[in-house]
């Protein structure tokens, strides 16, 4: 064996180990060295050496944490690598969060949106909000590394286009990523809201202890995101997990997607509000939730029936995917067991009893921030941290 070959091999092994550690830290938004042993399979000594190297080259930071009750050192991507923006375009609201590369949300803001909002005005508002948030923390667009956006429709992430027509009216065939990227001069990624919620809940929230997680987002519409082996599974054209368009009533109403009797036509906001119009008058989804939580029998019934209908569809999805846990988020999940209990019963009733790993349904942990946190994680995942630090250093040199 030649000496040169041995050196080359050692260098590439070290590079691979560095990449594995950096990748783990990026994915989980900060890990202790003990957790890094578990996630990379490397020895504690190797991790300690490489974390020291990465710290001195400014790629990661180590700070104290008291997570899980014990004091430890948390390794995160260095905050000074830059800033990221996560956007959630909802059916009735727009949420924008500014985060650093250390995995913290620094500032966020939510605006109400009119129903059937237009793409051009919504993107205008988004761009204004981004500049506003940066301004609020005394930062500039130069410090922004990228933007990721969550939308309530299936997305082909390769093109950034919505992959099913009619689901998001007025947004079909619109190159959202290119339009936003041109406006702000930054890279932009677009993905489905439930996918980004799934990513956040699986890596930072209720799904963190598990590798295979099914995340359900119950809000104005219903969707799901699938994480298998710690990775988001989008499917070939981005429609994996679209449980909202599974047919539950062959004689049901025509759905926005053109099919008939989709789950969305049974548990979407319009479908939940319609049967209450006669007895309760005009309500919003929030009103129904508040009244249900205050004990109103009609509103309670609507939420419980929704849980049952969702649970029946989840049984098929969970039977096909065999996840360890189902995490339920979105606004409707704020009603807690009122929604989750009937959902859990239907899920178990419709599934093969699994003695080894009985599945459970748990509430989400990140609340209404899950989708923007998933978007922030997407920017981090798509950013070459070492390259960004190098470029920042070069810019500083040139300015000197
Ligand atoms: Zn449909």
From TrEMBL:
Q: Which InterPro entries match?
A: ArsR-like_HTH, ATPase_NBD, HTH_MarR-typ, ROK, WH-like_DNA-bd_sf, WH_DNA-bd_sf
Please name the CDD domains in this protein's record: ASKHA_ATPase_ROK_BsXylR-like (cd24076), HTH_ARSR (cd00090)
Location of the HTH marR-type domain: 19-71
- The organism's place on the tree of life at top rank: Bacteria
Q: Listed GO molecular functions?
A: DNA-binding transcription factor activity
Kindly give the Pfam families that the UniProt entry links to this protein: MarR_2, ROK
The record's comment on protein family reads: Belongs to the ROK (NagC/XylR) family.
Query: Protein name, please?
Result: Mlc, transcriptional repressor of MalT
Q: Which organism is it from?
A: Serinibacter arcticus
């Amino acid at each position: 064996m030649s000496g040169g070959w041995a050196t080359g091999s050692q260098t590439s092994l070290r590079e691979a180990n560095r990449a594995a550690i950096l990748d783990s830290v990026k994915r989980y938004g900060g890990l202790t060295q003990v957790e890094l042993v578990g996630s990379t399979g490397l020895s504690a000594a190797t991790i300690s050496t490489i974390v020291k190297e990465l710290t001195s080259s400014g790629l990661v930071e180590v700070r104290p944490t008291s997570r899980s009750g014990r004091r430890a050192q948390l390794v995160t991507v260095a905050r000074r690598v830059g800033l990221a923006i996560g956007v959630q375009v909802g059916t009735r609201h727009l949420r924008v969060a500014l985060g650093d590369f250390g995995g913290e949300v620094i500032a966020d803001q939510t605006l109400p949106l009119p129903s059937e909002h237009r793409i051009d005005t919504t993107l205008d508002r988004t761009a204004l909000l981004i500049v506003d948030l940066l301004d609020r923390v005394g930062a500039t667009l130069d410090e922004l590394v990228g933007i990721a956006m969550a939308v309530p429709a299936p997305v082909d992430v390769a093109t950034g286009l919505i992959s099913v027509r009619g689901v998001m009216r007025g947004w079909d065939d619109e190159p959202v990523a290119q339009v936003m990227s041109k406006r702000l001069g930054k890279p932009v990624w677009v993905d489905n809201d439930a996918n980004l919620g799934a990513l956040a809940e699986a890596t930072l929230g209720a799904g963190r202890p598990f590798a295979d997680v099914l995340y359900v987002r119950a809000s104005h519409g219903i969707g799901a995101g699938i994480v298998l082996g710690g990775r988001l599974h989008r499917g070939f054209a981005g429609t994996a997990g679209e449980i909202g368009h599974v047919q539950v009533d062959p004689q049901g109403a025509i759905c926005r997607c053109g099919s008939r009797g989709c789950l969305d036509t049974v548990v979407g906001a319009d479908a939940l509000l319609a049967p209450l119009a006669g007895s309760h008058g005009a309500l919003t989804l929030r009103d129904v939730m508040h009244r249900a939580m205050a004990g109103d029998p009609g509103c309670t019934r609507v939420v419980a029936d929704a849980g049952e209908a969702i649970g029946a569809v989840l049984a098929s999805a969970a039977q096909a995917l065999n996840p360890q846990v189902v995490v339920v988020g979105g606004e409707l999940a704020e009603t807690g067991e009122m929604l989750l209990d009937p959902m859990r019963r239907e899920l178990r009733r419709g599934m093969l009893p699994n003695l080894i790993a009985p599945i459970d349904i748990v509430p989400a942990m990140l609340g209404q921030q899950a989708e923007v946190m998933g978007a922030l994680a997407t920017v981090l995942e798509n950013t070459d941290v070492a390259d960004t630090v190098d470029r920042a250093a070069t810019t500083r040199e040139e300015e000197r």
